[in-house]
């Protein structure tokens, strides 16, 4: 149950970080993605380190935490940025049509 709850927290935090990308729209996209991922993985590794101060961790704890945070984040980020790309492409097509119609 604890792992399920922890996974939910990491996914919710990842989604929240993705939601902040609109506030960072002046920055290059690659930098925003790297910053979001860096914050998320830093928090995950930090929480693993803190928990290691109170209990013994498995020898693969950091690798396991890295995988359990990175894989869902990569999937969610790909879907999120894919949807953003599609919406931007659709908006550009609508703007192009409006410009063509207003010029006629």
**Overall pLDDT confidence:** 87
Q: Biggest β-sheet: count, sense, barrel?
A: none
Unreliable spans: none
The helix-and-strand class reads mainly alpha
Strand content bin: under 5%
What's the oligomerization state? Answer: single chain
* Topology order in helix (H) and strand (E) letters: HHH
| Number of DSSP E strands | 0
User: Given the C-alpha coordinates, what overall shape results?
Assistant: elongated
Distance between the termini: 63 Å
Radius of gyration from the alpha-carbon trace, in angstroms: 19 Å
User: Number of helical runs?
Assistant: 3
Helix content: over 70%
Task: Provide a descriptive summary of the structure in words.
This protein is mostly helical. It has helices at 2-19, 29-54, 61-103. Helix 1 runs antiparallel to helix 2, helix 1 packs parallel to helix 3 and helix 2 packs antiparallel against helix 3 (61-103). The protein is elongated and about 70 Å long. The chain starts with a helix and ends with a helix. The mean pLDDT is 87.
Supply the key terms.
84% helix; 104 residues; 3 helices; mainly alpha
Q: How are the secondary structure elements laid out?
A:
Blueprint lengths: L1 H18 L9 H26 L6 H43 L1
Helix pairs in contact: 1-2, 1-3, 2-3
Characterize this entry briefly.
The protein has three helices and no strands. With 104 residues, the protein is mainly α. The longest helix is centred in the last third of the chain and has 43 residues, at 61-103.
């Amino acid at each position: 149950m604890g792992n399920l709850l922890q996974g939910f927290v990491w996914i919710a935090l990842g989604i929240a970080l993705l939601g902040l990308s609109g506030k960072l729209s002046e920055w290059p996209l690659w930098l925003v993605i790297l910053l979001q991922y860096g914050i998320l993985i830093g928090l995950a590794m930090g929480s693993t380190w803190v928990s290691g101060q109170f209990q013994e961790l498995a020898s693969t704890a950091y690798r396991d935490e890295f995988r359990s945070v990175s894989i869902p984040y990569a999937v969610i980020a790909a879907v999120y940025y894919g949807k953003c790309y599609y919406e931007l492409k659709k908006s550009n097509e609508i703007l192009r049509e409006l410009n063509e119609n207003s010029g006629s």
